[in-house]
Backbone:
C-alpha cells in the first residue's frame, strides 16, 4: 500500500529543511527524502560566515542545527534516494519510488541541489580517494603538512584553500582566468595567507601518480606551454551540475544548463511541482536556498488548499 501525504520534499539541504519547517508550520503532512548527506553542500563547508545572526559556524554544525529545528517541528526524514517520479492521473497524486518504498503526495518540492562538477581529465577518476577530492572538510586532514592544489576561482575554491592552509604545508590555487569570481572578502583572506600561492591563467591537463597522486600537469591557457607541479592532493572546486534528471521525466522544464526553471513563487511549469535551492540555478548560497525553500512551502500550501497563487513574473 502506498503511503499518501500532502507534500513530498526531495532533498534535505537548507532549501529542503526550510521547506519542511514551513510545511510543518502550515500543518502539512509531509516527508523529506535524502539519499546523501543531510545538509547537502553546506554540510561540507569548512566555515560559514554569511549566515545571518551567526558570525562563523562550521558547515556541519549549521546543517545539524537546521535538521534539529526541522525535526522538532515534525519533519519525517526518509534516508533513501528517490529513483522515479510518476503522475497518478486517476487519484491526482505524484508517486515517488525509492529503495524505502513508494510514497504519494499532492505536491512536490524539488530541492535536490547540484553535484560537484568534474575536470574530466586523465587521472581524475583513477585517483579519486587517492589524492583527488571534491571536499576539503572531508579529506583535508589527510594532507597535514603536505602540498595540495585547489582548482577553481570562485568562493568555494578560495574558502577551501584558506581552510587547507591551516592543515597543509603549501596550497596552490590554480585558476584558468586572470582574476577571481569570488567575493572580495574571500579573495583578501586567500591573498593574505602566506601558505597560499596562485597560478593564474592555467588549467590542469592531467593528474599523475603511482598508487597515490604525486603531481599535476599544468597548461598555460595563453601559451599552451606545459609544466609539471609536484603535489600530494588535488581539491576540485569548479562549480556544480544540477541534479535535475529525475524531474525531467515528468516534464519539468529546465534551462540550457539543466537547472529547473521557476518563477518568483518557485512554481515550475508543472502544477503542484515546486523547486528551491541550487537546483534552480540561483546564487549558490545557503541563505538563498533557505529563502526559496520557505517560499516553495508556502506556495505548495496554497496549491494543496486550492488557493489561487499570486501573480508572478518569470525570472528566465
Residues:
Amino acid at each position: 500500500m502506498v503511503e499518501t501525504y500532502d507534500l513530498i520534499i526531495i532533498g534535505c539541504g537548507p532549501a529542503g529543511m526550510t521547506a519542511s519547517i514551513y510545511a510543518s508550520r502550515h500543518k502539512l503532512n509531509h516527508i523529506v527524502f535524502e539519499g546523501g548527506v543531510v545538509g547537502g553542500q553546506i554540510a561540507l563547508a569548512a566555515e560559514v560566515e554569511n549566515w545571518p545572526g551567526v558570525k562563523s559556524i562550521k558547515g556541519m554544525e549549521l546543517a545539524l542545527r537546521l535538521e534539529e529545528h526541522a525535526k522538532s517541528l515534525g519533519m519525517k526524514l526518509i534516508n533513501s534516494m528517490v529513483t522515479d517520479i510518476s503522475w497518478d492521473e486517476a487519484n491526482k497524486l505524484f508517486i515517488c519510488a525509492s529503495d524505502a518504498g513508494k510514497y504519494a503526495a499532492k505536491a512536490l518540492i524539488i530541492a535536490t541541489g547540484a553535484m560537484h562538477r568534474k575536470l574530466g581529465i586523465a587521472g581524475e577518476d583513477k585517483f579519486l580517494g587517492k589524492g583527488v577530492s571534491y571536499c576539503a572538510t572531508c579529506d583535508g586532514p589527510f594532507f597535514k603538512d603536505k602540498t595540495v592544489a585547489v582548482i577553481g576561482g570562485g568562493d568555494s575554491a578560495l574558502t577551501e584553500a584558506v581552510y587547507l592552509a591551516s592543515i597543509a604545508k603549501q596550497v596552490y590555487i590554480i585558476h584558468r582566468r586572470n582574476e577571481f569570481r569570488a567575493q572580495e572578502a574571500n579573495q583578501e583572506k586567500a591573498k593574505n595567507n602566506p601558505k597560499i600561492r596562485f597560478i593564474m591563467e592555467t588549467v590542469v591537463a592531467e593528474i599523475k601518480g603511482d598508487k597515490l597522486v604525486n603531481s599535476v600537469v599544468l597548461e598555460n591557457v595563453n601559451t599552451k606551454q606545459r609544466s609539471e607541479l609536484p603535489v600530494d592532493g588535488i581539491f576540485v572546486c569548479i562549480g556544480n551540475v544540477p541534479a535535475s534528471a529525475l524531474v525531467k521525466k515528468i516534464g519539468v522544464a529546465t534551462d540550457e544548463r539543466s537547472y529547473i526553471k521557476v518563477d518568483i513563487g518557485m512554481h515550475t511549469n508543472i502544477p503542484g511541482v515546486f523547486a528551491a535551492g541550487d537546483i534552480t540555478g540561483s546564487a549558490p548560497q545557503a541563505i538563498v536556498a533557505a529563502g526559496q525553500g520557505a517560499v516553495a512551502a508556502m506556495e505548495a500550501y496554497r496549491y494543496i488548499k486550492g488557493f489561487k497563487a499570486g501573480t508572478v513574473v518569470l525570472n528566465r
